[in-house]
Amino acid sequence: SLGFSLYYAVGSSPYHTNMLSFSAAGVILLLAWIYPSDSLYFHIGETEKKCFIEEIPDETMVIGKYRTQLWDKQTGSFLPSTPGLGMHVEIKDPDTKIILSRQYGSDGRFTFTSHTPGEHQICLHSNSTKMALFAGGKLRVHLDIQVGEHTNNYPEIAAKDKLTELQLRVRQLLDQVEQIQKEQNYQRYREERFRMTSESTNQRVLWWSIAQTVILIVTGIWQMKHLKSFFEAKKLHSERAFHRSVTSTRELMVTHPKVC
């Protein structure tokens, strides 16, 4: 990881200010490209758990480093915490399988290698009750996560293997190419999973459309039969009523001819 501060004087000319801004942005982008790292800090309470998601290709080494600080009321700043404060680290792979679960001290370093590409969950929490005596139980944790070739300590490798500067640079380039290949394979894996999900969704939509069509057809046939039976019954009832009316009229004419 790399921490740096960048200051520049703002002149009276807007053109000069813009040029300095572009230069500063270029320096920041260059340093971010040379030293890519996920470095951050966060506050955590007693027994509180903080989790982070890291997308990692398969067969990739990951190194995490952390250090803890406690708030000191006298100095008004965060100071290194006491050794008695422990931090528990738990890491799960994309299948929610625990690949690392270990208790560390106030400062620690954890390492694991991914065997399944995808989102890995990195969780940290303190199981110490001594935090309640300090800063209302709040703790600041500085976390630095390095992935792939950034986990290599090249000065140590050069000293161990007695590599020249050119050989070391070639080694770095080879490691970068290998990491790029892993990233490409991971992107292909994600693309394949997305395609499979899309095909499955499209197939489900198709079958649901067919099911809806069948339901509508069956409902229409049932409604037609029901209406047909209803009208037939109504027609038969009307005919019977008409026949009864005609019969009653005839009987009335026979029994009371003068009335008719």
From TrEMBL:
Family: Belongs to the EMP24/GP25L family.
Gene source species: Maylandia zebra
Keywords linked to the UniProt accession: Endoplasmic reticulum, Membrane, Signal, Transmembrane, Transmembrane helix
Annotated Gene Ontology cellular component terms: endoplasmic reticulum membrane
Disulfide bond among keywords: no
Location(s), subcellular: Endoplasmic reticulum membrane; Membrane
Listed PANTHER family: TRANSMEMBRANE EMP24 DOMAIN-CONTAINING PROTEIN
SMART domains recorded: EMP24_GP25L (SM01190)
Pfam families on file: EMP24_GP25L
Transmembrane segments: 15-35, 205-224
Residue span, GOLD domain: 49-170
Name this protein carries in UniProt: Transmembrane p24 trafficking protein 4
Source taxonomy: Eukaryota, Metazoa, Chordata, Craniata, Vertebrata
Membrane topology: Single-pass type I membrane protein
Main location: endoplasmic reticulum
